[in-house]
Amino acid sequence: MSIEREVHEPRITEDEDHILAHDVDEEPVEANRRLFDGWLLKFVTLLTIGYSTFHLYTLNIAPLETWSFRILHVAGALILGFTLYAGARFATAEEGWVRHRWTTWVAGVAMLPALYALYQSFVFLQIINGGAMRIAPELETWHYGWPLLAATTLGIVVSWFHQRDRARFSVPDLVLIVCSAAVASYLLVVFNTPIRMSTGTSFAPVGISFAAVAGTALILEMTRRVAGMALVVIGLVFLAYVFAGPYLPGFLGYPGLSVQRFFSQVYTDAGILGPTTAVSSTYIILFIIFAAFLQASKVGDYFVNFAFAAAGRSRGGPAKVSIFASGLMGMINGTSAGNVVSTGSLTIPLMKKVGYKKTSAGAVEAAASTGGQIMPPIMGAGAFIMAEITGIPYTEIAIAAIIPAILYFASVYFMVDLEAAKTGMRGMREDELPKLKRLLKQVYLFIPIIILIVALFQGYSVIRAGTLATVSAAVVSWLSPNKMGIRQILHALDIAAMMSIQIIVVCAAAGIIVGVISLTGVGARFSVLLLDVAQASHLLALVFAMFISILLGMGMPTTAAYAVAASVVAPGLVQLGIEPLTAHFFVFYFAVVSAITPPVALASYAAAGISGANAMSTSVASFRIGIAAFIVPFMFFYNGALLMEGNWFEIARALVTATFGVYLLSGGVMGWMFRVPAAWPVRLLLILAALLMIEGGLITDGAGIGAAVVAYLIQRQRRARLAPAEA
C-alpha cells in the first residue's frame, strides 16, 4: 500500500456526543491508482466484485484443483493491478492529459504478439484434448514463448514512459493484462496434465520456462507499482544469484542451475505457487474480505471512537488512543504503513494538539500501528504464513502470541505515559471526547471478532471461521446505523479486491525469493553458517539472526519480510535446537519491527508524511518507542513460558516479571521514573534491571528487582531534594 495520502486535520463534529472518528478505515487512494468514471468505473467494479466473489465461492462451495486455483488467484491480482495502477505518473491538464504519445503506438505493436501468445495457449489446449501427450517444442518456442517475452518486455518498458489522464486506461497496461492472461492460460493447460510432473527436469516443456520468465517479470513490475522498489531489488539480487552463484566463493557457491531448469520450477509449489501464495489465496484473501466487511459497516470508526472514550482523558490521551486504536485496526488490515495512514490521519494531529512534538506524534503512531501485526487473533497476515510453513495450528500460534503482544503494547504505553509525565501533557477534556455511554450501547459491533475467536477455538477451520465472521459482520451491521444492504455488500467485495492486490502480488514476489532459496540451497548453507557462529555463543547467533531478519525486512511489507526470513534464518535456528514455534516467532517479530527500524522504516515514513516531521528523525524516535520489541524475542527465547509453554504459575510469573522489566526499560530509555527525571547512572541501572529479567530465572529476576529497588531509592531522594526547589 502506498504511504502517500493527502493529510487533513481530523473532522471534529459539533454534535452532542463529540464523535471524532469518521471514515478512518477508508482505503487511501495511492498516487498511482487510476480513478475511473462512467462505464470504465462500472466495468472495473464488476471485475473487483467478481474477483472477491470467486474466492468466497471457491473456498466455501466448489473447490478448484489447488494449482489451478493459485494460478487464477495470482493472474487475477495481476490483471486487476495493471488495470488500476499506472507504471508512471499521470499527465496533467497543462501537459494536455497525455505525454509521450509514441508509447501508445509501440504498445499497439506489442499487442499483436501478446494476443498471438494468448491464442496459442488455446491451440495447445485443443492439442492436449486431442490426445497428444506433449506439445512440439518448436511450436512452444516460436509461436508462444518468444512472442510472449517480446510483448511482456515491450509492455513493461513502454509503461514506464506512458503518461495519461488519471481517468483513462493505458494501452501498454492492456498489453500486460493480455500477457498475464497468456501466462495463466498456458500454465492452466500444462499443469492440468501429467506434464506437470516433469518440472525441474530436462523433460520439462520449454513453454513452462517462457511462461515463468514472463510471469516473474510481470509480478516484479506489479510489485514495483504497489510496494516500491525494495522488494523488487531484493528479488532481482536473488535471481542474479541463481546464475552467478556457481562463480561465488565460500558458502555462497553452489553447482548451478540452467535457465530452463530453474524457471521450469519457479512457477510451481517450490516458488511462486508455494507457501506464500497458498496462504494469500486462502486465509489472507478471506480475512481481507472480512476486514472490508468491517469497513463497510464502519466498525473502524467505532474502534477509534471507543478508544478515545476509554483512554482520551488520561495524560497524553490521543497517544494512548493511538495505541489501542492502531492495535485493533492493525491486526485486521495486514500492513503497518496502511494502518498508519488510516488511523494516523486522526490521531497524529490530535497528539500535536495536546503538546506532542511532530516527531513524537508520528513515532507513537508508527510504533503502535506496527504492533498491530503481532496482535492476536488475526495478527495481520504473517501468522497465517507461519502456520503454513511450520504446520503448527493457527490457534496455537495465536495463543502463543498473547503475552508477547501484551509486552509490546505495554512498552509503547509506558513510553507514551512517561513522556507525557515528563513534559507535563494534559489529556483531552470530557467535552472533547465521545460519550462512552453511547458507545457501550454499540458494543455488539465486537461480535464478529468474538465469533471468529470462538469458532477458531471450537475447532472450525480457519476458512470456515473467517467466513462465519464475515457473514456475522453483515448481520450485526443491521443493528447499527450503518446497515449493510446489497449495495454495501457489493461495495465491501469491491474494496476487498483492491485491498488484496498489494498483498497477493507481494506474496507472489516473496515466492520468487523463497523459490531461489529452496532451489539453490542457499538457506541450508546459511544455516551451517549460523551453526558455526553458535559454537562461539548462542546469544551471538541470535543477534546475527536478528540483524539478518531486519535487513531482509527493510522496505518490505510484513508478509514478504517474514516469508523470506523464515526461509533463510528460521531453519538455522531450528538446527540450533530451538523449538520451531520459538524460532519462527523470533524471526516474525524482527520482520514486523523492520517497519520502524532505521534507515528504511516504511511505517515511520508514512507517519512522518502525516505529521510533517523529518522522516529519519521519526524513524529513530519510533525505534526508541518500540525498543521493547527488540528485547521481547530474546525474552521468550530464554523463557518459553512467555509463549504459553509451561504451567500456569510459570506463565503468570513470566508475564509479571517481564511486564515489570519492560516498565523499567521504558523508564531507562525515556529518562523519567518515579515522578522525577532520571540521571544517566539511574537510567543505566534501570536498563540493567530490565535486562536481568530477560532470562526468566529466579536469581536473575531477584537481581533485577534488587537493582530496581536501588533505582527507586535514588529517585526518592532526588524527588525529596527537588520538592523544596519546586515549592
User: What kind of sheet is the major sheet?
Assistant: 2 strands, antiparallel
Task: Estimate the global geometry from the Cα principal axes.
Answer: globular
Helix content bin: 55-70%
Strand percentage lies at: under 5%
Q: Total number of helical segments?
A: 31
Question: Largest sheet, order of strands side by side?
Answer: 1-2
- Rg, Å, rounded: 27 Å
Number-wise, the strands total 4
Uncertain segments are: 1-16
User: What is the distance, rounded to the nearest whole angstrom, between the alpha carbons of the first and last residues?
Assistant: 53 Å
Summarize the structure.
It is a multi-pass membrane protein. With 727 residues, this protein is mainly α.
Structure characteristics:
two-stranded antiparallel sheet, disordered N terminus
What can you tell me about this protein's structure?
This protein has 727 residues and is an all-alpha fold. Among the domains are: 234 residues, no CATH class; 74 residues. The protein is built from 31 helices and four strands. Helix 11 runs parallel beside helix 13 and helix 22 runs antiparallel to helix 23. The longest helix is centred in the last third of the chain and has 35 residues.
